[in-house]
Design goal:
Length: about 220
Amino acid sequence: MPNIYKSQKGERAIKDRYLQFLKYWPVANQHLWIPTREGETFVIASGPESAPPVILLHGTAFNSTMWMADIVAWSQYFRVYAVDLIGDAGLSAPTRPSYTSDAHALWLDDVLAGLGVGQASFVGISLGGWIGLDYTTRRAERAKSVIVIAPGGVASKNALVWALPLLLLGKWGRKKMAERIGGPAPANPSPAERAVGEFMAIVFKKHETAYEELSDLLR
């Protein structure tokens, strides 16, 4: 397995903080571990089991904590599956297959099979948006709908124009990258929003983001 963290201490800091956040998931939920060809995938399931399924795909350098502010409303009407992307700062396997192949579509095939979902709606942001678009392009029959927010993520050479310089600018650059991925921080953040912002700062400091893996894109 690749090392996607800058140190074992950094990995522990991110995962310990994430596990603390999961204790405060605002609605009843189940933690699922789905076996896939890329290794285990961690999924948080919320909402009525009989409701229409929605797959949430978070942005790069983060995890399903990103959806905590939305899950209360969405889980009233949908069976919501917040999926930790492989190779990212969640609890899924650290595997990072090529973005120029169908590897992520095959991975999502396995995730949906493990969830027992034949067709679903997809919501993704940044890298998660790109993965959602890639999947629904390849598997149109499995997508009821797809909603994407800033879907360029890592899998676009245009993203590298702004991502690479920011990575070289230390704490300020990481802050600006987080804002570019997840939107600007609220002017008067609540305690929960402040905690998530601090968590994102830890992730960007201690995790090797997908923006730093450029071999496939620069060939």
